[in-house]
Amino acid sequence: MKNTTGLFALPARILHWLMAAMILAMLFIGVGMVASVSERHAWLLRIHKPLGIAILLLAVVRLAVRLRYPPPPLPADLPVLQKLAAHASHWLLYALMIAMPLVGWAMLSAGGYPVMLSDALRLPPIFPTSPTAFAILRHLHSWLAMLLFLTFLAHMAAALYHGLIRRDGVLASMVGRRRGA
Amino acid sequence: MPESPTSQKRPRHLGAWVLIVAVIAVTVTAFGYVGGWLAPQRLTPKRLVDQFETNAGVHPGYRRNHAKGVCVAGYFESNGQAAPYSVAQVFAPGQRTPVVGRFAIPGSNPYAPDSSIPIRSMALRFALANGQQWRTGMNSMPVFPVATPQAFYAQLQAQQPDPATGKPDPQKVAAFFAAHPETAAFRAWAKTAKPSASFATESYWSLDAFVFTGPDGQRHAVRWQMVPQSASDDAAAPASDVDYLAADLHQRLAHGPLQWKLLVTLANPGDPTDDATKTWPADRQIIDAGTLVVDSEQAQDSGPCRDINYDPTVLPNGIAPSDDPLLPARSAAYADSYLRRTSEEAHLPGSARPSATTPPETQR
Ligand code: HEM
Ligand code: HEM
A40-83, pLDDT tens digit by residue? Predict the structure, then answer.
């Protein structure tokens, strides 16, 4: 099935903007809570875990939506290198939005912590307890978060470049306005 | 419109480029500020834990505070009397909950003599049958010296050894106490406190307040205390031995399990829950919640307590943190300390390595 509308499907657009807000919030919540000793640390951590798991669930739905509704093609006149960068960065974003919550969940499991999403809701461990695994996964959670932030910056810059400078309908296809409209 | 003049440089595009760069710069700056990199004056967990290392050196693999200790195991047997106040499964009548614990002395030096400080600590992890956990770290004193992480940090800084003498500068310590009158109750206690000869004869206090939630949804501010069932023998600690606490524990456990009663104090409305330097009046209702039985010990470098972070905010349904500002600070600092020591255990690049000059493991 080919996309001829020049637009991302509505479910894809809704998921994109919802998850953009959630993931960006998670990055700020994450770095904010580990740099604080105040009550902020406690309440940010309480938001961090359930919001992260919600991102994992939505990411799975989003991949299904992407397979069901293929995105509009990139402009034909886009240089090959930029096309390649666009595709690579999109798949990197998908990989990270799935890897980040899984690593967070696995690192708490490896550290022997109960993975509590609320006062009473507990997820089962997905990794055997091991201090070595905990340390590696905990560092991985930080490094992948930095990679996610950098990828997001590049993604946002590229979107603005398409929207403000090239004006080629790429940004419009996700905002929901038809090309040229 | 799609035939955009990308190759031509127009002022319009200059504006767009400036806008793009500005959006990125604002986002990066906000991230840097929230993450503390651009807020060097903010007290972070890293700065707190760095100060422990500054004061006592880096001892790879060890906890950055309460570094010297011993693992124990046993169980908690609930008598059901706390069940009307907290739905936590650990308080159900007749419930027996396995416990992995740790006795320790405060301080960041794992080779400190047991007589160097009059405080002992007990940390416990209750593994509830429903998979939830209750972790607590308690000290053998009725009040904490300070109420806030900022004051705690100032105290650590005041205690930083003077390079000339290798000891804290008495003037700095005196200046700290003068600037922190809330330390008075602790100082009064410390004047008469003697380093005990045994972990088994000490009471251990939660110090921080917590909130119980009962089956009726009622919330109760509480503090708790572990009260020893071993008589205090007032035996003087053997002066020749620097590790007498572990030897005493070993000897006692060879003769049978040790017991503590868990006493939970219910606050009256208005009792301070955010200030660990203040005791609550003695007439408050106290519930005997059950008995802690400690029946085995293990060396801390290989025992099951080694890889447990006794973060006091790891709590089961029915117990929640109060508004005590020490609690989030403890959670954040313990996590940082835990990551450092697990990274060292894993020999990750960039983590501290045991140096040739570190004394050998002196504990059993
Ligand atoms: C999209 C998902 C997620 C993102 C973007 C994210 C991001 C972050 C970031 C940026 C940090 C700070 C890292 C540092 O600088 O040290 C962090 C820490 C953390 N995250 Fe996540 N995270 C996600 C999901 C999760 C999930 C699902 C869990 C657990 C179920 C989790 C648990 C934690 C914990 C426990 C910490 C550190 C707490 C500490 O060491 O004090 N994260 N996260
Ligand atoms: C802001 C104030 C405090 C800071 C920054 C702090 C810091 C620390 C650190 C870094 C550790 C080592 C954690 C690990 O690696 O697992 C530790 C252990 C411990 N702390 Fe604190 N602490 C504070 C307040 C308290 C209070 C109020 C209590 C008592 C109620 C307490 C009791 C303990 C105990 C019992 C341990 C040892 C746990 C064990 O045996 O593993 N601390 N503390």
Answer: 999 999 999 999 999 999 999 999 999 999 999 999 999 999 99
Residues lining ligand 1, CB < 6 A? Answer: A 23, 26-27, 30-31, 34, 48-49, 52-53, 55, 97, 100-101, 104-105, 108, 115, 141-142, 145, 148; B 332, 335
**Which residues of B are the active-site residues?**
66
Q: Which of B241, B238, B213 is nearest to B321 (CA)?
A: B213
pLDDT computed for residue B3 by the predictor: 46
Mutate to test the pocket of ligand 1, among A100, A137, A148 (most ligand atoms within 8 A of CB): A100
Kindly list the structural domains of chain A, giving each domain's residue range(s) and its CATH number in brackets, ordered by start. Answer: 10-175 (1.20.950.20)
For the stretch B256-271, pLDDT in tens is 999 999 999 999 999 9
Contact A26, A51 (CB under 8 A): yes
- Chain B's closest residue to A172, CA to CA, is B2
Measured in angstroms, the CA of A65 and the nearest CA of chain B are apart by 28
| pTM score above 0.90 | yes
CA distance B12 to B111: 69
Query: Buried b vs exposed e over B333-358: b needs ≥16 C-beta within 10 Å?
Result: bbbbbbbbbbbbbbeeeebeeeeeeb
Taken in order of first residue, the domains within chain B and their CATH numbers are 43-350 (2.40.180.10)
Q: Does B33 touch chain A (CB under 8 A)?
A: no
In this predicted structure, what is the pLDDT of residue B11?
64
Q: Out of A116, A136, A167, whose CB is closest to B348?
A: A136
B contact test, residue of A28, A37, A149, A160 with most B CBs within 10 A: A37
CA dihedral A105, A108, A109, A114 (to 10 degrees): -100
Answer yes or no: is the ipTM higher than 0.90: yes
Q: Do A160 and B313 touch (CB under 8 A)?
A: no
Q: Please state, in angstroms and rounded to a whole number, the distance separating the CA atoms of residues B207 and B148.
A: 13
Using a pLDDT cut of 90, give the percent of chain A over it. 93
Cα–Cα nearest to B362, from B194, B255, B241, B211: B241
